[in-house]
Design brief:
3-stranded antiparallel beta sheet; globular; mainly beta; 4-stranded antiparallel beta sheet; 79 residues
Length: 79
């Protein structure tokens, strides 16, 4: 089981809940991150920010897969 946590305004920590181990820190937004969510199989994370962007991240590598995507694009990618 995993949790997403934002301690600093512009980053998200991806944490393994049973050991409290940080797996990745997602860095890339230029303003406060206001939301974060896993997709259905936890292979991707989408984050939304006050910088008016959404970013799609790979959970295994912690790398950014897409930058500045809109909701429809995200919905189509995740199917």
């Amino acid at each position: 089981m995993f949790v997403l946590e934002s301690k600093e305004c512009r980053t998200i920590d991806f944490i393994y809940i049973y050991t409290s181990s940080k797996i990745h820190t997602l860095i890339g937004h230029t303003a406060e991150v206001s939301s974060a969510q896993f997709n259905w199989d936890c292979s991707r994370i989408v984050t939304g920010s006050m910088d008016k962007t959404c970013k799609l991240w790979d959970t295994l590598s912690g790398t950014k897969k897409r930058n500045s995507i809109d909701f429809l694009t995200l919905f189509l990618i995740d199917r």
